[in-house]
């Protein structure tokens, strides 16, 4: 999967004109500070640190705080003094917890709130001791062999019935490809799988290794429509069981082997390597292990494709998402992704960013999730529903505002001349 996921409180470069406007707004706000309580002044400071987003905060005592002269796009209600203090200590983590348990309520569009925060943060840059302390508090979990299994279990083994409620019919949990924004999610996911296969230029009877196969849709699509043999690795027991059952129903057990094992244990020689939505779970400190797998598995004229959520520059995931939704996840920058291939003399053939395709994919998911929210609440509880609503809405905001990217990187061995002359094969 992709952990295709929002970073609610990131940081981005300064903009001079916007910075001047922010300063003027701060000056206007200071004149009102004398009428605020101690907690109100703390809230004002919190909003200032977030770049003065156009939002209004209402405290438990009815006090209302805003730092901009423009109309607030949304209102956030903070339910208690302890909730406010936690936000001041570590907003990156505790906003998600507070929203999930109902200590924070949002009057208006949750996605607009998060987008407003992103846009405010585009005006500030976190530096100094506070930045170092925040990074230490929010450091990522590990992805050793044992840790990876536990991290994947935390997210993907929630139960197939849960994901069936809001994914497409083939259970594809990665960014779709919309040839037109008007096509259905089902059509866009099939288009994405075809797009990946065309990029890899798969030919009948070739052998493909897939690292992180989800519920098996891509492996089955490659075997059905491109006539290849596939070995697909995944450490999620629920997903592998589902994929094997589908292969049996489709009569593809002789062409697709689903293996419940870590990608690091893949061996053999293959014509193509593909990984869609798995790199986010590898962790940058383990890229050398994935590099070794790719090198030992790809044949002399082998091709590879890696599809992953990413960042414009190296940075951690939002800590709430990393701890509560996707343990151990890390979205790489493009430069970090390219480290996977440059150390073994692979040639990069194509790089594409499908950021807006992922934003639209997530909109489909969130709508389906909301339609099924009553059933999901029965299966789990209200806190679970609120947490996943925040995860999906925050992810849309992250892609819409450019905080998150979706990269596809195509590569081949540097010595191979079996490469296309033009890019026409991608679209024909």
Order of helices and strands: HHEEEHHEHHHHHEHEHEEHEHHEHHHE
Low-confidence stretches: 1-15, 127-139
Strand portion: 15-25%
Main sheet: strands, sense, barrel: 7 strands, mixed
Mean pLDDT: 87
The strand order across the widest sheet is: 7-6-5-8-9-11-10
How many H/I helical runs? 17
Indicate the overall shape.
Answer: elongated
Helix content: 40-55%
Chain-wise SSE layout:
Blueprint: H1 16-30, H2 38-49, E1 55-58, E2 64-65, E3 74-78, H3 81-89, H4 91-101, E4 104-107, H5 110-121, H6 128-137, H7 145-156, H8 160-164, H9 185-200, E5 207-211, H10 217-226, E6 229-234, H11 237-250, E7 256-260, E8 270-276, H12 287-297, E9 298-310, H13 319-325, H14 334-342, E10 346-353, H15 355-371, H16 373-379, H17 382-400, E11 405-413
Parallel strand pairs: 1-3, 5-6, 5-8, 6-7, 8-9
Antiparallel strand pairs: 1-2, 3-4, 9-11, 10-11
Helix pairs in contact: 2-3, 3-4, 4-17, 5-17, 9-10, 15-17, 16-17
Question: What does this molecule look like?
Answer:
The chain is 46% helix and 16% strand. It has 428 residues and is of the alpha/beta class. Strands 7-6-5-8-9-11-10 form a 7-stranded mixed sheet, sandwiched between helices. It has a 4-stranded mixed sheet with strand order 2-1-3-4. Helix 10 (217-226) links the parallel strand 5 (207-211) and strand 6.
